[in-house]
Amino acid sequence: MSEFKLLRVNLSSQKVREERVDEKTLRRFLGGRGLGAYLALKEIPKGADPLGPENKLFIMSGPVTGTAEGFEAGRTHFVGKSPLTGLLGESNMGGRFAPWMRYSGYDGIVLEGKSDEPVWISVIDGEVKFHSAKEVWGRGTHYTEYYVKKQLNAKPNEGAVLAIGPAGENGVRFASLIHAGGRAGGRTGLGAVMGSKKVKAIYVYGTRKPEVVDEERFKKGVEHLKEKIGNHPVKKALNSYGTAVLVNIINKIGALPTKNWRKGTFEKAEEISGERMAEKYLVKTRGCWGCQIECGRLVKTYSPEWGVPEGSKGPEYETIFAIGSNLELSNLEAIIRINHVLNDLGMDTIEFGNTVAVLMELYERAEELGEKSEELKKLLDGLRPVWGVPNPVLELAYKVANRDGIGNVMANGAKALAEAFGCDCVAEARGMSLPAYDPRAIKAMALAYATSNRGGCHLRAYAVSFEVLGIPVKTDPLEVNKEKAKMVKEQQDFFASIDSMIVCKFNTFMTPSPEDYVDLLAGVTGWDVTADEIMEIGERIYNVERLFNVREGDPGDYLSKRLLEEALPDGPAKGETAKEALEVMLPAYYEYRGWEDGKPTEETLKRLGLQEFLYII
Amino acid sequence: MSEFKLLRVNLSSQKVREERVDEKTLRRFLGGRGLGAYLALKEIPKGADPLGPENKLFIMSGPVTGTAEGFEAGRTHFVGKSPLTGLLGESNMGGRFAPWMRYSGYDGIVLEGKSDEPVWISVIDGEVKFHSAKEVWGRGTHYTEYYVKKQLNAKPNEGAVLAIGPAGENGVRFASLIHAGGRAGGRTGLGAVMGSKKVKAIYVYGTRKPEVVDEERFKKGVEHLKEKIGNHPVKKALNSYGTAVLVNIINKIGALPTKNWRKGTFEKAEEISGERMAEKYLVKTRGCWGCQIECGRLVKTYSPEWGVPEGSKGPEYETIFAIGSNLELSNLEAIIRINHVLNDLGMDTIEFGNTVAVLMELYERAEELGEKSEELKKLLDGLRPVWGVPNPVLELAYKVANRDGIGNVMANGAKALAEAFGCDCVAEARGMSLPAYDPRAIKAMALAYATSNRGGCHLRAYAVSFEVLGIPVKTDPLEVNKEKAKMVKEQQDFFASIDSMIVCKFNTFMTPSPEDYVDLLAGVTGWDVTADEIMEIGERIYNVERLFNVREGDPGDYLSKRLLEEALPDGPAKGETAKEALEVMLPAYYEYRGWEDGKPTEETLKRLGLQEFLYII
Fold first, then answer.
1. Which Pfam families has this protein been placed in (chains A, B) (predicted)?
2. pLDDT at B436
3. Per the domain annotation, does B224 fall within a domain?
C-alpha cells in the first residue's frame, strides 16, 4: 500500500479535493482508526465546538478493507471530536460501506466545514456530487437509505448508503451513523457531527479494486485467518445466537447490568437471550462484507404492537442489555421494535438505554430530588418511565430525537441527565455510559473502561475475553492483579491496530495474536511488518488518542461513583465494587504504558516517534 | 362597538401596524369568523400557496369576547387559507386566548408574510415584541407554553399562550393551534400556516377592558342567557360527562363511525363513553373563560403505559370517535394519552384519526393494492396498524408530526392517503375528513357536511341537535325531506353569526334562537339589531365563505363514495346510504340559499350587499 486516497469534502464551499497520505505516515498509523486519530489531532483545532464547522468527520477504511473474503474486512471507522464527551470520538461500524467507498475511488472521506442547506453526497467511481436533502431532512435513516438509492436508480446490492436520522440533525449528543438499516457507528455521537454539517447521507459506489502489493503473501494471510476462524467453536456460537449469546453467560456470572446498574443479574435474562431470539424471532443470519461468521440477526416479530419489517436487523447484546435488563424490560419483541426505531431515528442504543435507566431511577426516586422533582414532572409531561414497561421507552426515543421536553435534557446523555437532577446514579467513564459488563463482577473491565480514550467502552480492551470466555487464557474475573493491567494495555494496543487495518474484532476471538495478522498486513501493504510492529503501531495510536484528550482537558481515568462505591447486591459478585480494581491496576497500567497521571511522558512519545506532539504534555 | 382594533404583524419585515375596522363593516360581519372570512377573501390573493408568505392567519375575537361571564364568550376564531383543502380554512378554539388578546389591546391579530428565523411574539398592554424561538422550535406545545410563560415571568393565571407543535412546523396539513394544553383550533390545518410563517407562539396579556356601549341592555342580554343556560338539563349533561356524553347516544342510533366508517355501532362504546370517563378518569371539570357549563374534562390515568399529567385535558367526543371507535380501539387510557400527545404535537385529532383509519384499512386490504402494496410496506417500515391496537397509533402520531415514512403521506390528510394508494376508503367532503356522526344514519348531516364551506364539519350546521337531541324540535334522523334543508341552511347562518360574536355553540342548545342574542349584541355594540339581522349577517358570512371557495376552484357540495354508495351494515340505520339525502335536499338547499350549482347568484350577492365580489361568480 503506497498511498491512502482521502476525499476532502468542504461543506461550507461545496468544494472537494483529493489528497494522498504518504506511505511513511501509513506505516505509522495504518488507516482506519489510527490514521483518523492522527489527522484529527493535527487538524481539529483545540477547543473546537464538536457541532461547529471546525470539527471534522473522518470516514475511514483500512489497508485490508474490501480486499478478500473469509475474515471480516468490511467495517468502517469514524473519527471526530465527540459531542458527547468533548474528547476524541470514534466509532466502528459493520456492514459494507467502507468496501464500497474504496471501490468508489477513495480510502477515506473527510467532511469539513458546514453546509447551509441539507445535502446528501454521492461518490460514484471517483465522481462526487452534492444533492439537496430537503426532501429527506427530518426523516428516519430507513427511509433515507431507500430514498437515496431510488434517486440514483441503484440496484439493491450495488453501493452503500451512510445516513443520519432526526437525532443527528437535532444535535442529540449520542446520535449514530447508520448503514444498511441497522449497522451503526453508534458511540460518541458522531451522527450529530454529520448532522451539524447538514449532511444527511453519503452514497458510495464504484468498480475500482483496492491494491494488494504481495498477492501471494496476502493470500497466505487470508487463508490462515479463514481456516482458524472456520473451525472455531466461537464462530459457531456467534453464528447461532449472535452477540446476544452473551446474555445468559454474563448474567450467570452476575455481570449483566440490571435496573440502572443496581443489580448484576436479571431474573428474566432467559427471555431476552440470544437463544430465545434464535428460537422465536430469527429469520436468517447476516454477515458484513466477506464475513463467514455472520453474527448479524435478521428477525421478525409477531405482535401488532411491536412490528418490524420481516428480516430487519435484530438487536445486539449491547442493545438487549441497554433496553432490556438495565430497564428490567423482558419483552423481546418490544426490544426488537425499539431497537429498530432507534436505528431509524439514528441514536446509540447503549447511551439511549442508559439515559432511560437514569430517568427511570430519577422517576422512582422523585421524592429525593427536592425542588427538582417539580421540574422533572413538568418535563415528563405525563410520561411514566417505570421499570419493565416498554411504551414510555418507545415514546422517549421520539422525544429524545426531537429534543422535546425531558428529551431535550436526555439528548445530552446519561451523565448530563443525572447531573441536571443532582443524582449520582450513572455508570460512566469520560462522560460516556458503560456497556453491558459490570466491572464490579469483571474486574479487568474496570480498568478497560476507565482507560478507554473514547469513554466507557468494551471495545478498546475486551477483557471479557480472558476474564469470562478464556481467550486466550482464563482468568478469575473477581481477582485483582497487575498482570491484568498488562493484558488490558496489550489488548488496547492490539485492537487499535485491528481497528486500523480494519478487521472485525470478532476475528480476534479466534485469531487472538498479532502474529495471526502479519502475513495479511505484509501482503496487502508490501511492508516487512512483524507482530511487534503491529503492537507498536497500536501503542502509537493509543497514545495519539490520549494526546487528543489531554489537549482538550481530559477528565482522567475514572469510573463513576455507582461502580466504585455501591456494592453489587446480588449474584456471584455480591458485595463487590470496582474500587480496588482501579486502585491496584491503574498505577500498574500507567507503568506499562509509560504514562504519568494518565499522560504520556516525553520519553514515551519519543519512543513512539510522536515528538511533534510534545507541546501537548 | 365603534371599531375593531387589528394588529397586523408582518413577519417578513418584523413590522407591526395597528388598523381599525370601521363600524359599517363590523355591522355587516360582526367580528370573529365573519370579519375574518371577509378580510381573507379581500386580502389573500387567488391561488396563494397556503404555506407561502401570501397567506394570512387571522386570529379573531368578537364583540362579546371577554365581556361578561355566565355564558361562554371566551372562544377564539382563526381564519386563513387551508393547507388541507386549499379552500377557506377556519377554526374555533375554546379557552381564554381571545379575552386576553382583547385585554392586551387588540381585537384581532393578523399574521402576514414569513419570518426567516423562528420567532414567538408577545403582546402585552399594546406593546408587541418579537423573541427568538430557536430554543423551542421542534418542541411540543406543552413545553412551549411553559417556556413562553417562564421567559416572561408570567403568573399562571395571567395571560394566554397560543402555540404550534412540530406538526405545524413541518407543514402537516392538519396541524392545529393549541392553547392551555389542549384547547385546539384543530380543523383545516391553520397550525401549519402559523408554522410556515415561523411563528411558534403568541402570548397575550393586558388590563384593557372591552367596550360595552349600552351596559343596561347588555346586562339584560347576559342575564337572559345565564338564566336559560343555568337551568337547562343539557348543561347538566355536558357538565357531568363532557362532549363524550354523545358516545352512547350516537352509538345507540347507529351513527357512531366505526372501523373507518364501515360500521355505525361499536360494541365497546360503553368503555369509551363520557360516563366511563367520569367514573374512572375525571379529576375535575373545566370551563372556558366565563363559562358556567364546564364541559372540559381534566383527567388522570393509572397505567404506566398511558400516563398523562394529572389534571390534563381529556379527549372530546370527536377525539374518542376518531382515535377510538373508528379504529376499534376501546382502551380509554390509551385514547387519553394519544389525545395528549396529539395536542402536544399540535395535530387535529379528527383528521389524524380518520387518516389512521384509512391506513388501517389499507393495511388490512393490502393484497388489493397491487404494486402499491410494496410501497405501503416500505413506508410502514414494520409498523402494523391493526384495528384496536393503540401502540402503532401512538407511533404514527410522531411519524406524522415528523413527516417520516408513511407519516409523510399521512401528513397530507386522509383523502390524500387514500388517493396515494388508489383506495376509495375515505369519508370526506371538500378534502376534509368527517367528524363523528354518520350521515347515513342522520340524514340532515349529509347535507350539513356536503355544504360546509370548510369541508366535512359538524359545526357549520349541527343537525344532530334536531335529528337526535330534539333541539329545538325532534325530527326523524332517517327521514329525508326539504324542510330539513331549510333547517340546515338556517342553522348555518345562525352559527355563522354565533361564531362571529363570538359565543360558544353549546349555548345554542339552550338558547337556540337568534332572539336570545338580540339584547346581548345590541347592548355590547349599541346597534339596534334584530333577530332577522343576526340571521342576515350569518347568511352574508356564509356567502362570503362560499365565494372564497368558488374563487379557489371549489370542488362542490359532495360526500365521498363510502357514504353515498356503501350501505351501513349494522344498527338502526342498517342498509342506509346518504345518497338520497343529498339528491333530495341539495337542490332544495340551493333554492333556500339563492344559489345555482353551489354558487351564489348575482341576485343573492346584491341582496346581501356583496356586490364587490360579483367578479367571482
1. AFOR_C (PF01314), AFOR_N (PF02730)
2. 98
3. no
